[in-house]
Amino acid sequence: MTTSLPLPAKRTNVPPEGTRGVLIAILVLTVLLGGAALIGWLLASATARALPDAPPYMILVYTLGALLVLMPITGRLVPWIANWFYLFPALVFLIAFTVLPIILTVNYAFTNYSGQNSGNPDSGVRTAATLSADRRVVTLSETPEADSVQAYLRCRTATCVGDTLVLLDEDASSPVRARIASVQGNNVTLTAPVAAGFALADVTRINRIERVGLANFQEIFSKASSALWPVFLWTVIFAFSTVVINGLAGLILGILLYNKRLKGRNIYRTLLFLPWAIPAVISVQMWVALYNQQFGIVNKALGLLGFAAVPWLNDPLWAKVSILLVNLWLGFPYMMTATISALATINEDLYEAASIDGASRWQQIQSITLPLLRTAFTPILLSGFAFNFNNFGIIYLLTAGGPAQEGRESTAQSTDILLSWGYNTAFASAGGQNYSLASAIALIIFFLTLAISLVNFKAAGVFEEARK
């Protein structure tokens, strides 16, 4: 009796079909990319230890080289994956510009990462120091802002073992990070002697990035009345009012300009389309000049009519009105164009039949135009609300979040929306470059946007349409 061994499974060039095949291909490509990145990081780390002056971009060179080696190997192991290599650029950009920023934002939201706690040497608390003959013991002349070396260095343990002391020469141009072995009084013993060519002048500490749990969220909600709630309320009002005002203006103009009996309608369309064609940066800067309280043309015209000058950009209420008006100028051409495009899909026979039945023009609009436009306009209005909910550009360019309002945080002034509040917290000097707090604000914005979007989709019946 003879037995036959099972033949090894034959590799196939036919990729799996359907959603399962796409997911498997993406998984294989992700593993391939992750493996190449890991190899690149390991080789770059080894190069940095051997050659401290090696350029940082070597990690990209090593990663690319690893990809060139791993791709043929993966093609032999999984022959059908070659058909999916076209996804590689999209996957790289998705990870680099979407996945990685999300991961970093979530991570920073639970840390103290800021301009002060940046993981870099603290130049503000430098102190003079001397080095022992064996170049292993550093003696600090004083401990600024602290009563002990442990407190000055913000050591993780009472002995400071394993913590870092930054050594500076006279120019402080090349900081040297030294590992601490022990601390006695103002004497800090290092794990290894300092290089012979280094002339010690000062020392300082590292402002470490540490995990703080929910401290950032607690800070946000503890000051909710002066930042979160007023900013959130204005953000909703701004987005909703913009959609309503721009939608009505675009709808009315679109219906008027679609009338084939209107002479010169193409000229009117072209003129009304211009605000959308001009870059928003230019348009908003123009409106800043027009709204100038003393020299602006708007107030000059009002003065000729006998009205007092209006503080368009200097009063919290008028600044909000100014934003809505400028956003109307920027947004109505899009709504008008969308209306005209949607009207072109309506069968003219419906209007002819209504005219024969004696329906007036207004009755035709009520019974035919508006009901048929509702389906086309619903996604446009929802997307317009989502866009304006995070419309940072007009706020930043027109008012920069101002004017200041009493009782409000310096980073969350009268016209700041959620996104500009987060921007001010992260990058403006008033926010102290508090990246961790800004990341927490970004997470709150995400969940608020998600909740509002779900409510909008539910109200618009999107989920019911999807089930069909």
In short:
The chain has 16 helices and six strands.
Low-confidence stretches are none
Mean pLDDT: 87
In terms of structural class, how would the helical and strand content be classed?
Answer: alpha+beta
Question: Biggest β-sheet: count, sense, barrel?
Answer: 6 strands, antiparallel, barrel
* Tally of helical segments: 16
The name of the CATH architecture of the largest domain is: Orthogonal Bundle
Radius of gyration: 32 Å
The total tally of domains equals: 3
| Strand order in space, largest sheet | 1-2-5-4-3-6
Q: What fraction of the residues are assigned to beta strands by DSSP?
A: 5-15%
Order of helices and strands: HHHEEHEEEEHHHHHHHHHHHH
Notes on the protein architecture:
The protein has 468 residues and is an alpha+beta fold. The mean pLDDT is 87. The longest helix has 33 residues, at 18-50. The protein is extended. Helices cover 57% and strands 6% of the residues. It has a six-stranded antiparallel β-barrel. A hairpin with a 5-residue loop joins β1 (127-131) and β2 (137-140). It has three domains: 18-108, no CATH class; 123-204; 220-467, Orthogonal Bundle (MetI-like fold), CATH 1.10.3720. One of its GO terms (cellular component) is maltose transport complex. It is a multi-pass membrane protein. InterPro entries: MalF_N, MetI-like, MetI-like_sf. Part of the ABC transporter complex MalEFGK involved in maltose/maltodextrin import. Probably responsible for the translocation of the substrate across the membrane. Keywords: Cell membrane, Membrane, Sugar transport, Transmembrane, Transmembrane helix, Transport.
